[in-house]
Design a protein that fits this description.
Layout (H helix, E strand, L loop, with lengths): L1 H16 L3 H32 L1
Helix pairs in contact: 1-2
Keywords: Cell membrane, Membrane, Transmembrane, Transmembrane helix
Pfam families: DUF1328 (PF07043)
Organism: Galbibacter orientalis DSM 19592
Length: 53
Amino acid sequence: MLRWTIIFLIVAIVAAVFGFGGIAGAAAGIAKILFFVFLVLFVISLISRMTRR
């Protein structure tokens, strides 16, 4: 999931450099959502691992 976040971030940066503001904004929004989903899943996995031990 973190890989997809980085890919969308790179797409957003490249689109912004070439002047495609709509595409850059959409890609940055998707990257932001994926990053927060990744963080939530990471925290849940840490908590579940701590409760198992």
